[in-house]
Design goal:
Blueprint lengths: L1 H15 L18 H15 L24 E2 L6 H12 L6 E7 L1 H4 L2 H14 L2 E7 L11 H8 L5 E5 L2 H4 L6 H18 L5 E4 L5 E5 L5 E5 L2 H15 L3 E3 L1 H4 L2 H11 L12 H23 L2
């Protein structure tokens, strides 16, 4: 009997230590990924998911004559430019490959090309696949573009952002009327929105200019155009009431007290005291680029 019990115990122990063969109805599921692989995937998602891709804003050496400058920033109280910033962000991250298109419409300051081409060139070097087209007409008012054919030309470019730069010629009318100016901007913007309903718009204010006078038997004299400041406030009021962003170039370069004096004392204005030397327009373009880049960084940091 003792021998029988011993044999049973040995058999039980042998069964306990035999390798277990598991049966599955399907292939074995893979185990958890390695930590290194998981960490890489999470980092990639974190980079693409969070808005931390801000860019350095280059420094600009301003002329020594420039004093009492204002803040250089875009005013966008309702965030109308957010879809545009997102397109730039996706472009820079390589998620989107479509070209981002900007159309800059305006008067002779834009027709001279240097201001918009400076801004456009800097944006292209920063973001890559970006086109920046300027459409300027010498002597243009904003009403110059309130024609179906000209609005159609703008729409045909399929812009992601439209920039409107007017105000100099409006303010040089000595019978300037801010109510009329407001209505003229309203007409242009309404026409553009009908053709480009989902495209944000950004306005810029004029940089400042002088009135000229010629008295009998005396040389021509120049006086700061006082209507520029009124036109600037009209543009800002219109932009705020109608959901447009605005870059106040007039205030950026010194406003009522110093805008015109800064340009003249730095010898960056042409003899007509309305237009600017190439170096002046290039400086305007660089400052506009800096304001755009700061607004982009603010969006990415939200």
């Amino acid at each position: 009997m003792a021998d029988l019990r011993f044999a049973v115990c040995c058999a039980v122990l042998a069964l306990l230590f035999l390798p277990v063969q598991r049966n599955y109805a399907q292939d074995v599921l893979p185990g958890c990924p390695r930590l290194q692989k998981t960490a890489f995937d999470c980092d990639t998602l974190r980079i693409y998911g969070q808005r931390t891709d801000t860019l350095p804003i280059p420094l600009i050496t301003l002329p020594a004559a420039f004093r009492q400058l204002g803040g250089n920033e875009l005013i966008d109280s309702i965030g109308i430019l957010k879809p545009f910033w997102e397109k730039l962000r996706m472009l820079r991250l390589g998620i989107a490959v479509d070209t981002v298109r900007i159309v800059h419409v305006g008067d002779s300051h834009i027709r001279g090309h240097i201001f918009p081409e400076t801004t456009g060139g800097l944006l292209q070097r920063t973001f890559g696949a970006l086109s920046y087209t300027d459409m300027g007409i010498n002597g243009a008012f904003c009403t110059t573009f309130t024609r179906p054919d000209r609005v159609a030309d703008i729409a045909a470019l399929h812009p992601d952002l439209v920039i409107l730069s007017f105000g100099t010629n409006e303010s040089h009318n000595r019978r300037y009327n801010s109510i009329l100016h407001y209505r003229q901007m309203e007409e242009l913007v309404c026409m553009l929105r009908k053709s480009l309903p989902d495209v944000p718009m950004l306005m810029t204010t004029p940089p400042g200019s002088y009135d000229s006078f010629r008295q009998r038997r005396r040389r021509r004299t120049y006086k700061i155009n006082p209507r520029t400041a009124v036109a600037v406030q009209t543009i800002r009021r219109f932009a705020d009431a109608n959901g447009l962003a605005v870059w106040d170039m007039y205030e950026t370069f010194g406003g009522v007290r110093r805008a015109c004096l800064n340009w003249q004392e730095a010898r960056l204005m042409r003899p007509d005291h309305v237009h600017y030397l190439p170096e002046g327009y290039a400086l305007q373009g660089e400052m506009f680029y800096r304001a755009l880049l700061k607004a982009y960084n603010d969006y990415c940091s939200q």
